[in-house]
């Protein structure tokens, strides 16, 4: 079964996120919402949507997200009960109504191929929910390394909310503790896939919200931290996982490190 885990702090868009879950054609999933000591209480909204989907809520003591975001994600994932697959869904992102349905329709193939990571197509939306990118299309099975190189070359994009992971594989690698969790999602995809196969579903869309309220969308803050985190992540790949990358792929990584900080 599938767990959809939502690390919650911002109240601004959570209603739209929950609405996208209640609109799923296939409701064979449980929702876990971990509250990072938010000043905003989501329980009235949760009661409204709990009529359609199972939602388990926990308010944590002490806010981790400000300084140790990856540890906050990990304790949210610690809420999962018996489910064998999970999605870590941003509290401002929206899923198309067929995401869960298409996951289950392909699950037999995914398990037969021993694949641990599933990727959906995505589009970027703004703070008003308006799309301002098109979606990328992928082959049904792609190499996670190839997908990351495509991202470096702006031929693809990637975020946590457009992926489903096998829980048992996540438990062997956890999150890469980079500042702002910048590239922590990329490392999880690479390691959970064993630097190998990702199953891609083009027919479903994850709408990834990029706004001034998000780390990725804030163009005025964190630029130095993001650049330093990128270099740190790439050095980790080149020093400790170099045998996974061809010389051509290494060249793309070195080139992307040529940023001013």
From TrEMBL:
UniProt-listed InterPro entries: Glyco_trans_2-like, Nucleotide-diphossugar_trans
**What is the protein's name according to its record?**
Glycosyltransferase 2-like domain-containing protein
Domain annotation Glycosyltransferase 2-like: ranges: 4-108
Q: Lineage, please?
A: Bacteria, Pseudomonadati, Bacteroidota, Sphingobacteriia, Sphingobacteriales
The parts of the chain that form a coiled coil are: none
Family matches, as Pfam families: Glycos_transf_2
Q: Which organism is it from?
A: Parapedobacter indicus
Taxonomic superkingdom: Bacteria
């Amino acid at each position: 079964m599938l767990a959809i885990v939502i690390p919650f702090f911002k109240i601004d868009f959570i209603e739209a996120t929950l609405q996208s879950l209640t609109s799923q054609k296939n409701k064979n999933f449980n929702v876990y919402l971990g509250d990072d000591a938010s000043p905003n209480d989501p329980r009235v909204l949760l009661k409204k949507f709990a009529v359609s989907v199972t939602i388990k809520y926990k308010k944590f003591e002490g806010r981790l997200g400000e300084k140790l975001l990856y540890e906050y994600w990990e304790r949210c994932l610690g809420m999962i009960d018996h489910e064998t697959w999970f999605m870590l869904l941003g509290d401002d992102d929206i899923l198309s109504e067929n995401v869960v349905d298409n996951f289950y329709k392909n699950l037999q193939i995914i398990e037969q191929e021993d694949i641990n990571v599933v990727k959906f197509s995505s589009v970027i939306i703004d703070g008003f929910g308006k799309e301002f990118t098109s979606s990328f299309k992928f082959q049904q099975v792609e190499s996670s390394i190839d997908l990351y190189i495509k991202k470096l070359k702006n031929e693809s994009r990637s975020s946590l909310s457009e992926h489903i992971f096998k829980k048992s594989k996540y438990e062997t690698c956890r999150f890469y503790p980079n500042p702002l969790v910048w590239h922590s999602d990329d490392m999880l995809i690479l390691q959970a896939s064993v630097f190998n196969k990702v199953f891609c579903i083009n027919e479903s869309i994850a709408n990834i919200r990029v706004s001034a309220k998000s780390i990725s969308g804030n163009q005025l803050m964190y630029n130095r931290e993001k650049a330093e985190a990128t270099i740190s992540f790439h050095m980790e790949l080149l020093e400790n996982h170099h045998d996974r990358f061809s010389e051509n792929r290494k060249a793309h990584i070195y080139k992307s490190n040529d940023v001013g900080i």
